């Protein structure tokens, strides 16, 4: 998750303008994948992953671009993209806090952590705060059950968290909250 | 022999079911021979009486008065029938449910709509507060039988009453339960 | 075309390398230990070796999961030809102290030492996880040195495909991902299927919250999976394979991609594998966050780039699968068992476990239990042994209440069944399932209706929406459970809930929907009094 | 036209019938005048198998199977009207009614609706479950048709007919589970669609009032799902004017 972010940010700064017909050179990275995938239609999900890595989220323009490139009906592309929970259609916040809500974490009180962050920063789970500073997400098991409850903050996996430690963590990066 | 006692009540609905009830025309005379209508919006009775054999309830449970009357009906009736689609499902009355908070709806309708005077009706004790969600009758009290239809046609109401008078539940198969 | 890898030469070379230094430090670098800080620990040891000029004395080897995740970071000091000492909670400072103490003073550091005579270690039987804490997952040589790819070589050079299937049949192995379908039957079906193109798919869409054995295999022993796939493809006549991995496992995807490249370079994949006439291409396909894609037909839809909705069966995938061609889908843990079965024989495997559930099973122990982590035990080990001996019991002097197996498709097993042997059939009899091997222990504080609601919310979120009972039924069951848990539920709500359990179980299209009521059914069966206690005693809820 | 396919003996609720090899249980029942209720199935389109209304009991093991997607096999004993199946059918139907906003009284299809008829057939006199009352916007942007998602039961007939028969693939389903919803193109108003050919097949096959002609009032909308069968017969057999054989 962390390298996704760095790649995106790097891509965003040095290739915003360029030679790509769309005017946004980040599409070059999508094109590169498409070429490697020989524009096979079954590469739709992989292509959406690449596009999301590059742009941080999937805007309508990106979806249309992918639909055209793979010669797929737009409704099908939209249907596939929205089916899978990892695709997101809004720009992510500056920081991301993902709380694992797998069974082991649930048993150890992950729900309280989600609630606390959600209340403190008035951001519902799965959304980004209004000022764009924090995206709060929940995950269905990160497979680190031995460390439950687990929180991933800006790509760092942190085990044995509780409400207090998580709030402290978020406050350290985002600020006081409220 | 004691006459059977039948009541009809009107909660959150358009009274169309009662219109249909009146459409039973001359059969109403036959009904009067064997049963007393002890409470009804078409009879001037203020208090819901005790020991009613069967009550037909029109309308959904939309406000606090509806709720109060529904509970009273249940407590005082041997059988309760959901009479018409609004009682059975919420129907048109419940079409506000997807819109959420009733206060917001009142705001939109009375305050923000251009052709209104900008006031939400407020008369404590007269205009009953809306419940957060409109609910079918059976979500509020136990209901013994259902008579869908918007409104249920007169012949279906008659068939239901005939069954009740014979000590049976109304027919609930085939066209007898067609909605809409 | 380059010459294929010479397995025996590599083994020799690796043996020499192993004896090069007096000390080897194996450091667990699996995801769990990394989250606990293993990265810094390994870095500290590498710096120490560099700085104190111990290069000829000590080599630091990152390895896969050592199992006891709750005590990470874990390291193991190994002296040439002899003693080993395991350490737990090894901070960078502790690591420096431990390495110095061993190398300079020949003294262990008791403060961090892990007691490997405890049942957590002694009661396990590691087949699938045999390489955990042993090999360096990034080096194919390390895998080969521990017998890797010899089963493939044996199969390709000395066995007919039929004989391979026969060996699998003898082993009695059943699918490790869910229902426990006999693996050999699936293989025979694909082998018998006609068609030029056939596919083998490794199902690494491990979605059960609380299970992470497949991730561990893919991350820590990727070549074992590739070897298993290659043997399966050879036995069934397939030349194209996919590994479908959850996108939530980026490290597994990376490791597998690299392992596939390296295997191809060494002619363990690609054309004319090990100079035989067997060709096989393996590709990784990535999911995007949909539990239902663990279901075979949904998984195939997803590989084809479509919405992951299950399709009607029949036709079964072995008749009509990916792009209409015969396809066989095996779980990752199943495939990780294949190489040992071929190397050591089906009879050996069948001698492990019970008569109808052979071999071992990996469990992810989590929840209210002292030792959390990945364990592997022979099938038929009792729950009590797993919970009390291996797991070290319930912490804080609390009482065991239930063990949840099978995730959202499984059930909760109460304490009176602690002596049940854990195998496919016994768990099913208790209203649960083996599933992929998540085992969550719950103590007396856990309210079972809450647990049922938790799993129902999971199934509701993960329902694909294709069929009515699952799409709407899970929402309605969740509503009812919510009311019951809030203390506003009625007797009628409980009746409706039970009825919906049957409706959704019997009429849903795929396994997700059919199994979604299981957590409710099993908690109602064993903990009904908890539901009753929550019921608002009025017959109907008031607004 | 005489059928020369090999036959198998089967039974519906204990009565013997003859089925053709390769025929589905549902087709076989229809051909023999036996009623198996169904919703998402439509002759002429691919089988979806999602509504689960047509599940029947097949003797071995009493497992339930969708009649639309199960082929007849020799000596198959099929049960349709068992107490369990009646109860399940009603429950599934109640779930559908609870899910959307089905208000028969104000619906264009009132009196001519497959869902409403199914309620009558199944004896559904009320819905036990909580109405979910989702908030869904009506799409009236198309000049000729109206899409009211409140009445949609996600049978996907429109998706299939548009993709398989018309070849336009304007429709698809977005999101999943309880959030699944029909969309046109990139979830833009239907009227903005470039791929829609205005052929009206999606409207013709809709089992409820979800897709209707513009300007229809309560109870005025009549669908024509059999059109697809007629079209299939015309295209495959070249019989354009033989509604009897087709229906």
Task: Describe the structure in your own words.
The complex is a heterotetramer of chains A (178), B (180), C (543) and D (247). Chain A is α+β, with helices and mostly antiparallel strands and 178 residues long. Chain A contains 8 helices and 5 strands, in the order H-H-H-H-H-E-H-H-E-E-E-E-H. Chain A folds into 2 domains: 82 residues, no CATH class; 80 residues, Glutaredoxin (3-Layer(aba) Sandwich), CATH 3.40.30.10. In chain A, helix 3 runs antiparallel to helix 4. The N terminus of chain A is likely disordered. Chain B has 180 residues and is α/β, with parallel strands linked by helices. Chain B has a single domain, classed as NADH:ubiquinone oxidoreductase-like, 20kDa subunit (Rossmann fold). In chain B, the strands form 2 sheets. Chain B has a 5-stranded parallel beta sheet, sandwiched between helices. The longest helix of chain B has 13 residues. The N and C termini of chain B lie far apart (38 Å). The mean pLDDT of chain B is 94. Chain D is an alpha+beta fold and 247 residues long. Helices cover 26% and strands 15% of the residues of chain D. In chain D, helix 2 packs antiparallel against helix 3. Classes of the chains: A alpha+beta (178), B alpha/beta (180), C alpha/beta (543), D alpha+beta (247). The interface between B and C is small, with 11 and 5 residues.
In short:
Chain A is about 50% helix and about 10% strand.
CATH topology of the largest domain in chain C: Rossmann fold
What strand line-up does the widest sheet of chain C have? Answer: 10-9-13-11-12
How many individual helices of chain B?
Answer: 6
What is the molecular shape of chain C?
globular
Corresponding CATH superfamily of chain B: NADH:ubiquinone oxidoreductase-like, 20kDa subunit
* CATH architectural category of the largest domain in chain C: 3-Layer(aba) Sandwich
* Number of structural units classed as domains of chain C: 4
Strand content of chain B: 15-25%
Across the major sheet of chain B, the strand order is 2-1-3-5-7
Low-confidence stretches of chain C: none
Query: What is the percent of helical residues of chain B?
Result: 25-40%
Radius of gyration of chain B: 17 Å
Element pattern of chain B in H and E:
EHHEEEHEHHEEH
- Amino- and carboxy-terminal Cα gap of chain C: 77 Å
Strand content of chain C: 5-15%
């Amino acid at each position: 998750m962390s390298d996704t972010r760095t790649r995106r940010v790097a891509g965003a700064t040095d290739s915003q303008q360029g030679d790509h017909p769309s005017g946004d050179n980040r599409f070059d990275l999508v094109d590169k994948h498409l070429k490697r995938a020989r524009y096979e239609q079954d590469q739709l999900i992989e292509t959406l992953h690449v596009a999301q890595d590059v742009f941080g989220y999937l805007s309508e323009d990106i979806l249309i671009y992918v639909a055209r490139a793979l010669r797929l009906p737009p409704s099908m592309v939209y249907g596939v993209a929205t089916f899978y929970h990892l695709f997101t259609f809004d720009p992510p916040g500056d920081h991301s806090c993902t709380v694992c809500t797998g069974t082991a974490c649930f048993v150890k009180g992950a729900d309280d952590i989600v609630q606390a962050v959600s209340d403190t920063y008035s951001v519902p789970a799965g959304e980004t705060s209004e000022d764009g500073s924090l995206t709060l997400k929940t995950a269905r098991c990160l497979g680190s059950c031995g460390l439950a409850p687990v929180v991933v903050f800006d790509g760092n996996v942190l085990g044995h968290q509780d409400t207090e430690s998580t709030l402290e963590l978020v406050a350290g990066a985002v600020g006081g909250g409220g | 022999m004691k006459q059977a006692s039948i009541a009809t009540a009107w909660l959150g609905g358009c009274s169309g079911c009662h219109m249909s009830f009146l459409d039973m025309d001359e059969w109403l005379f036959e009904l009067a021979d064997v049963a007393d209508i002890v409470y009804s919006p078409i009879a001037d009775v203020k208090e819901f009486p005790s020991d009613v054999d069967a009550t037909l309830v029109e309308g959904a449970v939309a406000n606090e008065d509806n709720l109060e009357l529904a509970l009273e009906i249940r407590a005082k009736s041997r059988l309760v029938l959901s009479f018409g689609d609004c009682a059975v499902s919420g129907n048109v009355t419940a079409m506000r449910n997807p819109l959420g908070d009733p206060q917001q709806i009142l705001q939109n309708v009375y305050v923000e709509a251009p052709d209104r005077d900008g006031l939400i009706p407020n008369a404590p004790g007269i205009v009953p507060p809306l419940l957060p969600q409109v609910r079918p009758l059976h979500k509020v009290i136990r209901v013994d039988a259902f008579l869908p239809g918007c409104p249920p046609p007169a012949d279906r109401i008659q068939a239901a009453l005939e069954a009740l008078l014979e000590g049976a539940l109304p027919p609930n198969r085939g066209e007898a339960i067609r909605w809409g | 075309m380059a010459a294929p890898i010479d397995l025996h030469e590599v083994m020799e070379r690796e043996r020499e390398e192993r004896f090069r230094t007096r000390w080897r430090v194996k450091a667990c670098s699996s995801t769990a230990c990394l989250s606990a800080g293993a990265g810094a620990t390994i870095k500290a040891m590498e710096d120490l070796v560099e700085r104190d000029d111990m290069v000829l004395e000590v080599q630091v080897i990152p390895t896969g999961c050592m199992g006891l995740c709750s005590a990470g970071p874990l390291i193991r000091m190994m002296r040439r030809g002899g003693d080993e000492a395991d350490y737990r909670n090894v901070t960078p400072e502790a690591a420096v102290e431990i390495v110095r103490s061993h190398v300079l003073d020949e003294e262990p550091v008791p403060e961090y030492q892990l007691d490997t005579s405890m049942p957590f270690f002694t009661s396990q039987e590691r087949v699938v996880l045999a390489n955990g804490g042993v090999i360096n997952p990034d080096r194919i040589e390390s895998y080969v040195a521990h017998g890797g790819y010899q089963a493939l070589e044996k199969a390709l050079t000395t066995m007919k495909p039929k004989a391979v299937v026969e060996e699998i049949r003898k082993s009695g192995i059943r699918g490790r991902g869910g229902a426990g379908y006999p693996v050999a039957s699936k293989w025979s079906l694909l082998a018998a299927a006609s068609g030029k193109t056939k596919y083998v798919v490794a199902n690494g869409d491990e979605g059960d919250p609380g299970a992470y054995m497949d991730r561990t295999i893919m991350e820590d022993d990727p070549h074992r999976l590739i070897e298993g796939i290659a043997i399966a493809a050879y036995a069934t006549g397939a030349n194209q394979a996919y590994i479908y991995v959850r996108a939530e496992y980026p490290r597994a995807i990376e490791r597998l991609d690299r392992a596939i490249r390296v295997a191809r370079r060494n002619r363990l994949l690609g054309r004319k594998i090990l100079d035989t006439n067997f060709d096989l291409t393996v590709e990784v396909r990535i999911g995007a966050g949909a539990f239902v894609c663990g279901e075979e037909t949904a998984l195939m839809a997803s590989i084809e780039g479509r919405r992951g909705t299950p399709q009607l069966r029949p036709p079964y995938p072995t008749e009509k699968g990916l792009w209409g061609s015969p396809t066989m889908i095996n779980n990752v843990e199943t495939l990780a068992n294949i190489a040992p079965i071929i190397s050591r024989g089906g009879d050996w495997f069948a001698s492990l476990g019970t008569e109808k559930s052979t071999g071992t099973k990996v469990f992810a122990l989590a929840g209210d239990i002292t030792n959390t982590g990945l364990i592997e035990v022979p099938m038929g080990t009792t729950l009590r042994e797993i919970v009390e001996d291996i797991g070290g019991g319930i912490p804080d002097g609390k009482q065991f209440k239930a063990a949840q197996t099978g995730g959202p498709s499984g059930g909760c097993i109460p304490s009176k069944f602690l002596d049940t042997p854990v195998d496919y059939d016994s768990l099913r009899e208790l209203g649960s399932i083996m599933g992929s091997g998540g085992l969550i222990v719950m103590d007396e504080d856990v309210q079972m209706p809450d647990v049922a609601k938790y799993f129902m919310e999971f199934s509701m979120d993960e329902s694909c929406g294709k069929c009515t009972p699952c799409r709407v039924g899970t929402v309605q069951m969740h509503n009812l459970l919510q009311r019951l848990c809030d203390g506003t539920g009625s007797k009628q709500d409980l009746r409706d809930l039970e009825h919906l359990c049957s409706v959704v179980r019997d009429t849903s299209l795929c396994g997700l929907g059919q199994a979604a009521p299981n957590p409710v059914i099993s908690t109602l069966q064993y903990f009904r009094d908890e539901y009753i206690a929550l019921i608002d005693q009025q017959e109907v809820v008031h607004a | 036209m005489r059928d020369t396919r090999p036959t198998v003996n089967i039974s519906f609720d204990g009565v013997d019938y003859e089925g053709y090899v390769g025929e589905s249980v549902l087709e076989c029942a229809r051909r023999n005048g036996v009623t198996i209720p169904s919703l998402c199935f439509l002759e002429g389109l691919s089988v979806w198998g999602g509504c689960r209304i047509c599940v029947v009991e097949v003797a071995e093991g009493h497992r339930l199977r969708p009649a639309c997607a199960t082929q007849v096999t020799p000596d198959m004993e099929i049960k349709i009207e068992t107490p369990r199946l009646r109860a399940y059918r009603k429950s599934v139907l109640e779930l559908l009614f609870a899910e959307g906003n089905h208000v028969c009284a104000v619906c264009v299809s009132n009196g001519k609706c497959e869902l409403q008829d199914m309620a009558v057939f199944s004896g559904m006199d009320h819905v036990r479950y909580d109405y979910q009352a989702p908030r869904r916007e009506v799409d009236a942007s198309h000049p000729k048709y109206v899409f009211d998602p409140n009445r949609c039961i996600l049978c996907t007939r429109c998706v299939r007919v548009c993709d398989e028969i018309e070849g336009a693939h304007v429709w698809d389903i977005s999101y999943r589970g309880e959030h699944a919803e029909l969309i046109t193109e990139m979830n833009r108003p239907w009227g903005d669609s470039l791929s829609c050919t205005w052929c009206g097949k999606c409207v013709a096959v809709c089992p409820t009032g979800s897709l209707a002609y513009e300007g229809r009032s309560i109870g005025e909308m009549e669908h024509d799902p059999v059109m697809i069968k007629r079209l299939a017969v015309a295209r495959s057999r070249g019989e354009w004017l033989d509604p009897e054989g087709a229906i």
